[in-house]
Amino acid sequence: MKLFWKLFCSIVGVTVLSLSVDGFTLIDGQFRASLEQEVQLLREENDMLRYALSMAAEGQPLSGREELARLAQGMALTTGGHTASFRLSAGAGEELGGNHGIPPDLGPYPLISSLSENQRGWVLRRVAEGAYYLHGASALSLPDETVYLENCRCVSPLFAQRDQQYQRFFYKLLSMAAGVGLLSFTVARAILRPLDRLSAAALVMAAGELSRRVPVTSDDELGQLSENFNAMAERLEEQVAQLTAAAQREKDFTASFTHEIKTPLTSIIGYADLLLSRENSPEQVRDSAGYIFR
Question: Please, are residues 213 and 233 in contact by the beta-carbon 8 Å criterion?
Answer without folding.
Answer: yes
